Amino acid sequence: MDKLIVDKLNLYYGANHALRDIGMAIPAREVTALIGPSGCGKSTFLRTLNRMNDLVEGCRIEGKVTLDGEDIYAEETDVSVLRKRVGMVFQKPTPFAMSVYDNIAFGPRTHGIRARVKLDAIIEKSLRDAAIWDEIKDRLNENALSLSGGQQQRMCIARALAVSPEVLLMDEPTSALDPISTSRIEDLVAELKKEYTIVIVTHNMQQAARISDRTAFFFLGEMIEYDATEKIFSLPDDKRTENYITGRFG
Amino acid sequence: MKTMMRGFEGIKPLSLALRACVLAAAVATVSIIFFIVGYIVVMGVPNITPEIFAWRYDSVNVSLVPALINTAIMTALSLLISAPLGIFAAVYMTEYARRGNRLVPLVRLAAETLAGIPSIVYGLFGMLCFVMTLGWGYSLLAGAFTMAVMILPVIMRTTEEALIAVPDSYREGSFGLGAGRLRTVFSIVLPPAVPGILAGIILCIGRVVGETAALIFTAGTVAKIPDSAFSSVRTLSVHMYSLSSEGLHVDQAYATAVVLLILVIVINMSSVALAKRITEGKCG
Fold first, then answer.
1. Is residue B48 over pLDDT 60?
2. I need a surface site. Which of A238, B28, B89, B160 has the fewest CB within 10 A?
């Protein structure tokens, strides 16, 4: 079943045509990796899936993106609800300057959950799902900025999970982390895909090969190839994909 | 010893002269400050008597207590007027206005110009506008409004700087969770900016406490605790000015100067401490 369907998506930053005619179907409960050299549009594309580009001035989007068949760029779409359904984890950890508890409670509170008992339960579940509960369960009242980088990133994943999203967008979530934290987050992704649809941008091709079911290769604003990960990494159709994954450029 | 000698051998006459200039400038600055403070302390401290802290002011015993209380009321009132305005204006400029908004550079230019205007001009404006046109007379209210106009640009600019220093990742993280702009600004962006905003407010307190010219024209010089917002009041600085210009109680003027000096030093030190806390916050 396809969770997200993108059809003839074009994106412009002012006069700059940043994404050209992108079309892809992202299946539910699978990990889809977006790879490609810097500046190829993969992060920009990821941000069109929960309308984070709305915040960028001079950004114009044409085409259609549907989530469970609903057009997310339709006028009647509530962006707040969309971003609750399609959560996001950023390249650098983005903890707010408040306690771990308040960080994770921020999302649920935004969407109207106030009861302490309910919040407590949500916080424990999200931290468990993000595989960080045992490490920080005694530090919930500490400032989130005092956690290590890897812990901050997993806390941010927990924060995204706390609003019970259906899709999780991850924008190079391990690029600022050490190898041990990276492998933890990779394990976590494998665990999370049982419940969530995951789209992950990565610079690291081994990572894409390890954790994803499907891979899309982006180059200069175009999606060159999109297929099962095994196929992309063993027998790509396009010469450019082959050059990139074999390390001839990028 | 040898290395020191070698150090001096290598120095050219020009850089030696420059070094001397720099040192002289530093010594001059420090000695001027020490001289002023020392002079005031020597002249003022012996005159700090229990009498000048009496509850009431009269022509025989020129108590500074009413002026001290008026200073506090004046400061609080002018902040009450200008802090919300300045903070919300800054929030609008950094969080709401779109890039390319023509109003923003205009407001910024106006604020910068206002910050550079001599306070006597504010005094004249306050007298013409609040005292005469609005008919408030020489009053606490007219003084406070004049002070509010004077410190508004400072509060606005410092708040703006504090908001700009909050990393964009906070805003993105918040929007990414489905929060709207209002919630993002008030729950996520403003709290880490509070120390910076506070430092600006303390700077403004210092300006109100030290102001004389603008207040003589707008709040008058009556040395009593006010009955209403329309009573004329004198603050500590104005009190000092009055005492020394009347020439009858110059000793008490020096004592007032000591009290004022202590007040200003305390305010400046807390401002520095707060500013330090912000820079530490940024690294963490």
1. yes
2. B28
Q: What average pLDDT score do residues B37-42 get?
A: 92
**Integer Cα distance of B214 and B221 in angstroms:** 12
Which residue's entry shows tokens 């709290």?
B191
Average pLDDT value for residue range B114-135: 92
- From B259, B211, B261, select the one nearest B237 (Cα to Cα): B211
Contact A223, A46 (CB under 8 A): no
Are B232 and B142 in contact by the 8 Å Cβ rule? The answer is no
For residue A233, give how far its alpha carbon lies from the nearest alpha carbon of chain B (Å).
32
Nearest-by-Cβ selection for A94 from B100, B170, B187 = B170
Between CA A97 and CA A103 the distance in angstroms is: 8
Q: Hunting for tokens 């992704």 — which residue is that?
A: A189
Question: In order of start, what are the domains of chain A with their CATH numbers?
Answer: 2-245 (3.40.50.300)
- Is the CB of A94 less than 8 angstroms away from the CB of B281? no
User: How far B179 CA lies from chain A's nearest CA (Å)?
Assistant: 6
> Which pLDDT does position B228 carry in this prediction?
84
Residue A35's contacts (CB-CB under 8 Å, 6 or more residues apart) are A42, A201, A202, A203, A205, A208, A215, A216, A217, A218, A244, A245
- Report the C-alpha gap between B161 and B159 in whole angstroms: 5
In the prediction, which pLDDT does A217 show? 94
* Complex ipTM more than 0.90, yes or no: no
Point out which residues pair with A24 in neighbouring strands: A6
Torsion region of A150: left, alpha or beta (phi above 0 gives left; psi -120 to 50 gives alpha): alpha
- The closest CB to that of A94, out of B169, B178, B281, belongs to B169
Per-residue pLDDT tens digits for A40-70: 889 999 999 999 988 888 889 999 999 999 9
Tell me how far apart the alpha carbons of residues B45 and B50 are, in angstroms, rounded to a whole number: 12
